[in-house]
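About this split. The held-out portion is used to measure sequence recovery: a designer receives only the structure tokens and must propose an amino acid at every position. Recovery is the fraction of positions where the proposal matches the reference. Here is one held-out target exactly as it appears in the evaluation file.
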């Protein structure tokens, strides 16, 4: 049996999560204020595709990613595959009608951004969701594959971050729009109660406390990560570690066995092992099994935190096996 007083020490930094959540609230408040002065509401279709440079990256990509996923197309004028991919991405952006934005970055004019993203060849396509960068694919991929990737991006943005996109109106330019709602809160008491429940081993109580916050504020970063942590601890509390690990070793193709072992790995502080196990499960499986392994891996990314270098490395590994 798993020890009663399980801990996530060394796996997740809740202080960093709280800081990230506060930063997101400030960004949402800034957008609300912009809306009151005429800067918010529905956007014109032409606004879904934007050219971005280093000076405007924080405003046009990072801040916007708190309300809608931003797909980044790294391109150059001399790049022949870019001339095939970029028009396709622009067309799909219009078709998805506000579920994501497309930011086009000329690598020749923005070398610093190219270096920051570790771009080694173009075209290269990334996504930024709630400030988190995710590599999507490199090269002029087939349209069907790009659609599948975009569908997954939209799904993850909605399910894990509460981002449902932005409203698009062909006649929106110049029209007045309703003010955006001010983020609800604060939730210090509920969040503190959830942390105390975690420390006491009351994972069900912690889950409910975090859900209470998210029912009123679906985008609350600290509550979403705390919920992922509480759910993880709840899943492993009744596991027999020896049995789980034996099944995982004997059944490498059994995705459920690998998922259970990955949960134990993470709770035990073996972050790289947990990530590597699930990346391998994604690589060797297909269809529903592959999606189950991928989604659990994304959940574990949230438990550890987006800024952790182990998450960054695992995201790159996941992108390699997916594309």
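Reference sequence for scoring:
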């Amino acid at each position: 049996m798993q020890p009663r007083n399980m801990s996530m020490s060394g796996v997740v930094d809740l202080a960093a999560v709280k800081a990230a959540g506060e930063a997101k609230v400030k960004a949402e408040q800034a957008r609300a204020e912009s809306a009151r002065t005429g800067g918010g509401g529905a956007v014109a279709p032409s606004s879904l595709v934007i050219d971005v440079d280093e000076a405007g990256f924080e405003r046009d990509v990072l801040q916007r990613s708190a309300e809608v996923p931003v797909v980044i197309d790294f391109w150059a004028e001399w790049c022949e595959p870019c001339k095939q991919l970029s028009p396709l991405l622009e067309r799909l952006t219009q078709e998805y009608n506000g579920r994501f934005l497309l930011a086009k970055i000329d690598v020749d004019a923005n070398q610093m951004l190219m270096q920051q993203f570790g771009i080694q060849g173009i075209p290269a396509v990334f996504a930024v969701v709630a400030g988190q960068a995710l590599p999507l694919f490199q090269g002029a991929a087939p349209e069907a594959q790009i659609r599948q990737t975009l569908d997954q991006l939209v799904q993850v943005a909605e399910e894990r971050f509460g981002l449902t996109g932005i409203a698009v109106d062909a006649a929106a330019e110049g029209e007045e729009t309703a003010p955006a709602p001010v983020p609800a809160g604060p939730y210090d008491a509920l969040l503190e109660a959830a942390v105390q429940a975690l420390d006491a081993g009351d994972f069900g109580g912690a889950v409910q406390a975090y859900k209470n916050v998210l029912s009123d504020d679906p985008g609350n970063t600290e509550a979403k990560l705390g919920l992922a942590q509480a759910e993880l601890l709840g899943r492993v509390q009744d596991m027999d570690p020896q049995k789980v690990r034996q099944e995982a070793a004997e059944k490498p193709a059994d995705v459920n066995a690998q998922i259970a072992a990955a949960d134990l790995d993470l709770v035990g502080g073996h972050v790289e092992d947990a990530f590597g196990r699930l990346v391998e499960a994604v690589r060797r499986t297909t269809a529903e099994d592959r999606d189950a392994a991928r989604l659990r891996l994304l959940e574990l990314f949230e438990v550890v935190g987006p800024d952790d270098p182990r998450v960054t490395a695992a995201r790159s590994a996941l992108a390699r096996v997916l594309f």
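Annotator remark: The longest strand covers residues 132-138.
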